[in-house]
Amino acid sequence: MKVGYYPGCSLHGTSREFDESLRAVAEVLGVELAEIDDWSCCGATSAHATNHLLSVALPARNLALAESQGHAEVLAPCAACYNRLAGARHEIATDAALAARMPELIGRPFANTVAVRNVVEVLHGLLPTIRVRAGQPLAGIKVACYYGCLLVRPAEVCSFDDAEDPVTMEEVVSATGATPVAWDMRLECCGGALSVSRTRSVVRLGRAILNDARAAGADAIVVACPMCHSNLDFRQSAMVRRGEAAMPVLFLSELVGLAFGVAPDRLGLRRHFTSARSLLDRVQPPAAAREVR
Amino acid sequence: MNSMEPAHGGHGRPTLAEELRRATGRNPARCYQCGKCSAGCPMASETALRPHDVMRLVSQDRREELLAAESIWLCLTCETCVDRCPNECDPARTIDALREMASAEAPASVPRALAAFHRSFLDQVRLTGRLFELGLMAEYKLRSGALFADVTAAPGMVSRGKLGFVPHPIKGVKEVRRIFDACERANQEKP
Amino acid sequence: MRAKTITEEELCTFVADLVAAGTRVTAPVRAAEGKVDYRAITRFEEAAIGAELPRRSLKEFFLPPTEPLFSWRQGKGDVTVKPVSVSFPPHVVLGARPCDAAAVEILDRVMGWDYRDELWFGRREATTIVSVACPGIDGSCFCTATGRGPDSTRGSDLMMTPVDGGYFVEAVTPKGEAFVRTHAARFADVADPGTTVAAEAFRARARSRVAENLTLSLPALRSWLGSSFDHELWRTIALRCHGCGACASVCPTCHCFDIVDEPDGVRAGTRRRNWDTCQTARFTVHASGHNPRTDQNARFRQRVMHKFSIYPDRFGEVLCTGCGRCARACPGGMDLPEVLKTIAALAGADGPREAAV
Amino acid sequence: MALPAEKIEAFEPRITAFVCNWCTYTGADLAGTSRLQMDPNVRIIRLPCTGRIDPLFVIKAFERGADGVIVSGCHPADCHYTSGNYHARRRFAVFNEILGFLGVEPERLTFSWVSASEGQKWREVVNDATARARRLGPFDAFRALAGRSA
Amino acid sequence: MARIGVFVCHCGENIGRTVDCARVAEELGKLPGVAHAIDYKYMCSDPGQALIKQAIAEKKLTGVVVAACSPHMHEKTFRRACGSAGLNPFLCEMANVREHCSWIHEDRDAATDKAVDLARFIVEKVKRNVPLETIRIPVTKRALVIGGGIAGIQAALDLADGGAEVILVEKEPSIGGHMSQLSETFPTLDCSQCILTPRMVEVYQHPNIKLMAYSEVAEVGGYIGNFDVKIRQKARYVDAANCNGCGACQKACIVRKVPSEFDEKLGKRTAIYVPFPQAVPNIPVIDRASCAYFKAKAKGVKKDACGKCKEACSKGAIDYEQADTFVTEKVGAIVVATGYTLYSIGKDQPEGLRGYGEYGYGTIPDVIDGLQFERLASASGPTAGKILRPSDGKEPKRIVFLQCVGSRDPAKGIEYCSKICCMYVAKHTMLYRHKVHDGQATVFYMDIRANGKGYDEFVRRAIEEDGARYVRGRVSRMYRDGETIKVQGFDTLSGEPVVIDADMVVLATAIRPQPGIEQLAQKLSASYDAHGFFNEAHPKLRPVETNTAGVYLAGACQAPRDIPDSVAMASAAAAKILGLFSKAELEREPTVAKVDAALCAGCFHCERVCPYGAITRIEVRDRKGNLVKIVAEVNPGVCQGCGTCQATCPSKSVELQGFTDEQIWSEINALLA
Amino acid sequence: MKELQELARTLLSSGTVGVVIGWEEGPRGARPAFITDAADSSRLIFDHRCTHNLATYLSPRRPHMARLGKAAIVVKGCDARAVAGLLRETQVKREDVVIIGVRCGGVAADPAGAKPLTAETVAERCPGCTAREPHLADHVVGEAQPEPPGAPTRDARIAELDAMSAPKRWAFWQAEFARCIRCNACREVCPMCFCERCVGDKTEPQWLESSPHPRGNFAWHVTRALHQAGRCVDCGECQRACPADIPLGLLNRKIAGIVADRFDYRATDDPTVPAPIGAFSMSDRQEFIL
User: Fold this and answer.
1) Are D150 and C265 in contact (CB < 8 Å)?
2) Residue F175: closest CA among chain C residues belongs to which residue?
3) Going from the N-terminus, what domains does chain D have, and what CATH number goes with each?
4) A250 with A262: CB under 8 angstroms?
């Protein structure tokens, strides 16, 4: 299986571990990630908040590139990129006038034929393979699946799962052998958009999420969004310094990687601000896991 | 009344609601002030105007007040309100459109930190085609004046290999710049 | 009058001068779809003489597919009638096929028999028909079997035969002779006797080529038809016939028409004459709804009977010039020469070639 | 096919309207009772339902010199006979496209839904159709068909 | 030759001010076929009508054209006048020179020209009018009532009391409908069953009513006055003739934990059951899906299938072999009273609707709907009238009511107001407070719609006397926190986000039509709206009729209705039908279609487009009896005269009387003088 | 060919049918054949010249056909759609006809067309055909055939016309219709024109003037097109029959496009698919309605 790959800026920077773990997992799953040649930034929140047309045109350029490079679908692991790319695709598909304007605006032929997928969706599509490849190293580990907002909303754009009661991430986690917990905050926003400019809000929102996960008995939170990760992981480090218990925050790909027995370093786990040690200690060594099988 | 004529808000200018309807494709008049948006809004405890207040002020054509409000800049665009609105009003998109209008009509009212962030962000993209995060942080801190915020993070980021030092423009950077120019032009040409 | 010749170059100036003088000139012209139609020309170069057989025959220049007969208007308690004009400007048909020209003359009989059709004869008198001897078209040609031939002069005022660089020209009728006299400067005397020989050779070749397709004894055919109205042949002859009437539309001799009153509002209207054909089911429908010709076999029988029995009975010659258009146009593969051959076999009429009736 | 200004001045288009009895005819009645002034160029022919309106009517109207035709009836779901207007909609969708394909300017033909309560809308439909026909000028192309007989 | 009389009315100044009526009469008089043309001040007045009658007699008119107001105004008047003068009324038509001319134009010349044109069209049309005879249809004086809820019961009783025979068809084993499930009713708080059950018994005992419970309408043919209705009687597996309702079978039944429909799944019933003790008829039904006997049979068990009820029945009334039966009844009118169903917030929704994920898609056990609350509050309910939560049977001390769940929520697919929720929620808060004295009820609402007699006072009482706390705002989300339900909303009046901890939540879910109503509507050729509610013929003037003559509506099948409204509609429908039944024959306008069998090719496009199913297929045979072709024929009793068949017929082999092709053609051709 | 002839022989000699409608060799190429005697079955042919749509012969308006008894008809996949049309509109009963499908690799525009079939001689409708495999058939004979040669061109011509201004399009069609002599051949050969009395022949009132002048011609062609909406099976017989070579196929193709685009209906050999005219959807597009 070959899929167009749009890493986005974060996966080349602050969320390198997402990229690394994803590539490691893809290798095991036999998925070829063909990075879109010469991709550019999707414009993220900034284009969205200041110039709507730009917020459609920047993703459209990348979709056009993917199209010309022969991809039928493109994986955008960053939830923000996914949301922007899928959102632009939806808007162009439903607004004929906008669609007509696009080729000239981006200076490229563009037929809007490429489907946009996120990590949860792609991994969910590989559930049987994950089940086969995963050993038992995560047995007994309880995980809070955190969707946040950009992955599932708005519903008409992110139609891969139910916006109010998604199940896909839980099913992936179950396939890895870990146990998803039931909790309330999995769809609440972490405040990513204000991460840099209004930190106090973000801390408030993040704390509520961490507390709820903890109350639900989770050993770790699993995310599929660099912004969520950064907010929950990086912002948490200050709380930990103040003596609060650490709640490791893992990318879904990292968790899957652990289930596959990939070395934590290859998954970039050392790059986290909040140590995942407490979790890694409970992971069964790969060799043992294999024996169990 | 002739229904073919657009509604006007005095001075021959279309009402705010009319303008937003054009920009978002959604009719703000559909809002019946049930407050479900605000009930689910993660920022409701912090903002002076909650999503339903914004919709209310739109329907009352209180343009200046809205465009000057800090609240519109506090929306996280998490889209919770959009999915829960019984009338498909799309408050988030409305707020986005208000932000665009505020940037154009009342730039002074845009919170400095946010304006700085968005400017820095887009400048980076325009410069290299992608976001160069260290450059963003440097530029943002200069622009916002928040020189010491998150200052503790940078070394950690670097030590974790999360921030590179050299920006690499993509091949198609000129193409990206043309897109920026075209979109800005289109925005200025809007009626 | 002695035979003449005319060159292609001369025809070019001749046509241009005729048109300039107000004469309508009609000739075969290649239409957009590659088919040939008789059409008005302004220059000889437009004409496609000797190319394929035109899609339709010459009859529409004398009996148009539709023409107004008069118009009327109803007042309060009275009706005013406005007649149409029966005088027509001079008209030359250049490059008529002998089979088409012959048909026009055959139709003169029916048009002038018990009632003189002013519109027909008005146009006939205004028109000079200049035919060009035909080399024969294809296997569907059977003009020789109908007693005419690819070089028949019936109906032509002038007959031209293609020769090197131009045409060998003979006047057939007084009208033709007058035409040559009026435009004497356009024609040259035959200088080389070889020209006459070449012209005759061309015609002889054509005659024998067409004769290979079909030979008939017309009297035998006629007498068999006259006594075989209920022959079982007619029970299945036209199974493949759709009754579409395409044959009659392209036929040079089919001349049935319908009279319709076309309203112009609720109080005025025009009476028109439109082509019609016995091949459609509604042709013989009575006001009661009864239709004496119950099926397509009966309708096709009518067509054959009329052409080869009824018309000869009344006017002494068959109502067919053997152009073969009907066979070529038929979407269902009906083939008149084939049918005639079948009947001839039944009638013992497939004997030696007959002279003209 | 725009006309010079002075010709537009002199030309009064003739417009035939085929309307259903229950919605548009009644809507036009309402326009009357509301004294809504409108262009006097439209002549209404009343039919029970848009379902009864045959494309042949439109062709005949053009043949008889109409410069524009209006077909109007009940909004979807409002048909007095429950579904006549839906059938009419299909029929005229095809007819409209065929006419366009054969070169009839689409502005010659106006389709509308006008309910019994939409006197105002009826006025707009009438005035718009008149204005459009006035802009296009007399439907000479069609009338020429009648004059050019063989 | 036609002899048409043209009568131009001035309508006082109404027409005369802008139209030169004398000139109109003069111009029309010039037309061929017009024998008489005059103008007069008031044509509709007695002297005006006399002018018409006189002219008919003196000028031997063959047709009359009145150029005046809209035919909607006076067509009947003038047709009657012509009729009384001996001219067939359908030879009279009107040209509308008032509404369509004088009132909408100012230019006198243009208006006069137009008036001439309009009248000329009609003259040309009338020349081609033919005398038509009013259609007379015999009436079967029996009515069918579909649905045995309060609306159906009321309609049946009113009709029966009025002397009409009634067939009452109810799909459930018992009549009573939703009303029988209610505890008390607003705004009087009287006991629902106390007022309903006597009516149910009355239905059962009424000599004019034939009750067919556990039955459904399978097919409807025919037309007003003459419907043929095929009714399917579902197999009860109990012989109604032998059953005495002793209940022994139910006691013997081994399957005892089937969720009770009557108790909205909060209680249990046996596999052989009557829905509730006061059921009418009091004859049990075997629920085949849960019955041990049938389950065993389905698995192929030959011996030892249960059979306990059969053993217990002293009357031998249990009949496992019973099958559905069909009966056909002839009726003259039909009342549809199929009632409503409640929207559910779950994930599975019919097309066009969405569930409430934000409220947990119905997975939180102590979130119930209004009817479930009624059962909890009802003395005959599963808790004997105690308010107890389904999850653990504890008494909820904090209860939250949400209004407009599904209703007024276009995003979920329903934009309408369900009308009764404001009232019953107020009632619920009262019932709750009366039963849980220390409990706190909170109501999330958007608007209070309490516009009936005593309604607003009732809501005020809930707030003022019974302590219900009303919060204006929609709830965004609900989730569980241990045993508590967190209700996250926004108080739009105080401008504050609120999270209310609740022990139980009651949802006032939207009122929706019964499932399958579209199929019923199609059987009846009646129209329904986008939500599946039946359309009334006119929202103001014909609220209980449908567009199909002879089919009437009562209750919530037409829109959300409360009990008084439903009862009023039922009585109105009954009155309409009794009026209909008061005549021996019906008169119908002869504007119906007619097929020319000789020309019909039998493609049956007409059959497909006919909204009324008025087209039938008939065989055409020749003299020898050989089948020539099958062609269409119009049943004039069913045809309503829309003419869609004619426009659809490719060969124009069907003609609508009064609007024939000739008539329309003439109008169009009169376009130019 | 043998297979077809054998089948015909069996059907006729067993008395299953009274006539087999197929093709035979005629003086001018292939033509319709009506085999009533099993011994004549060897006359049947099928090759690229069998362009005729024989379904026309099933029309109940052909009493002389009915006299031959129950018919078996040989159809190409595309022709089967016409049989389906006749079934759909209750003109033929399924039990009254035996359908013999032949696998087709495209046919020539002219039944006299020479071999082999080329992009120049192929009928306009054939390139890109999706109906070559007969489904509506009691028997299917012949091997699978190669794709017809050539590329579809008609949609491009329609697009060309669509792109013209209205007056230009008007001029184009007027020039074509000017040749029409109202012989009605287009109607008579059409398998889907089976009305007992065509509206074009209706006289009281006369909606369509029967005179071949431009006005009558325009009204006729509009009406024919309208009546073909959802009926036309694109067999091209009308255009082939037209003695004036009016491009009726182009008009038919346009209608097919309209019906496909608006009502998602395409000519089909499934007689149970309802015709689009006479049906409706609440959500039919109504962009042309104010």
Assistant:
1) no
2) C32
3) 15-120+127-136 (3.40.50)
4) no
Question: How confident is the model over F100-151, as pLDDT tens digits?
Answer: 999 999 999 989 887 888 888 899 899 989 889 999 999 999 888 888 988 8
Sorting pLDDT into bands at 50, 70 and 90, what band is E441?
Answer: very high
In whole numbers, what is the pLDDT of chain A averaged over residues? Answer: 89
Cβ A123 vs Cβ A56: under 8 Å: no
Q: How many CB atoms lie within 10 A of CB C278?
A: 20
Q: Tell me what pLDDT residue C353 has.
A: 44
Contact C245, F183 (CB under 8 A): yes
Mean pLDDT calculated for residue range C164-187: 90
Burial string for F61-88 (b: 16+ CB within 10 Å, else e) reads bbebbbebeebbbbbbbbbbbbbbbbbb
- Mean pLDDT (chain C) is 89
User: For residue D146, which residues of chain C lie inside 8 Å, CB to CB?
Assistant: 264
Quick one: CA torsion of F134, F135, F138, F144, rounded to 10 degrees? 40
CATH of E589-657, one of 3.10.180.10, 3.40.50.620, 3.30.70.20, 3.40.50.2300: 3.30.70.20
Average of pLDDT values for E343-365?
93
Establish whether chain F is in contact with chain A, requiring a minimum of 3 CB pairs below 8 angstroms. no
**Can you tell me the distance from the alpha carbon of E474 to that of E492, in angstroms, rounded to the nearest whole number?**
9
Radius of gyration of chain C (CA): 22
CB contact (8 A) between residue B36 and residue E475 = yes
Domain that holds residue F43: 2-141
First to last CA, chain A: 26
Q: Could you tell me which of A111, A150, A199, A166 has the C-alpha nearest to residue A8?
A: A150
| Distance (Å, whole) CA F288 – CA D92 | 9
Residue C357 reports pLDDT greater than 70 = no
Q: What is the pTM (predicted TM-score) of this model?
A: 0.66
Of D86, D93, D150, the CB nearest to F262: D93
Q: Which CATH architecture has domain E4-132?
A: 3-Layer(aba) Sandwich (3.40)
Which helix (H) or strand (E) segment is F87 a member of?
helix F77-88
Interface residue ranges in chain D relative to chain E, Cβ cutoff 8 Å: 14, 16, 25-26, 28-29, 31-33, 35-38, 40, 43-49, 51-54, 57, 60-61, 64-66, 77, 79-84, 87-88, 91, 123
Interface confidence (ipTM) of the complex: 0.66
Between CA C263 and CA B101 the distance in angstroms is 66
pLDDT at B2 over 60: no
Q: Is residue F146 part of a domain?
A: no
Span C2-23, pLDDT tens digits:
788 899 888 899 999 999 999 9
Which stretch of DSSP H or E encloses residue E398? strand E398-405
Q: CA nearest D124 in F: which residue?
A: F290
Chains in touch with D (3+ beta-carbon pairs under 8 Å) read: B, C, E, F
Peptide bond into F205 cis (omega under 30): yes
Q: What class is the E342-512 domain?
A: alpha beta
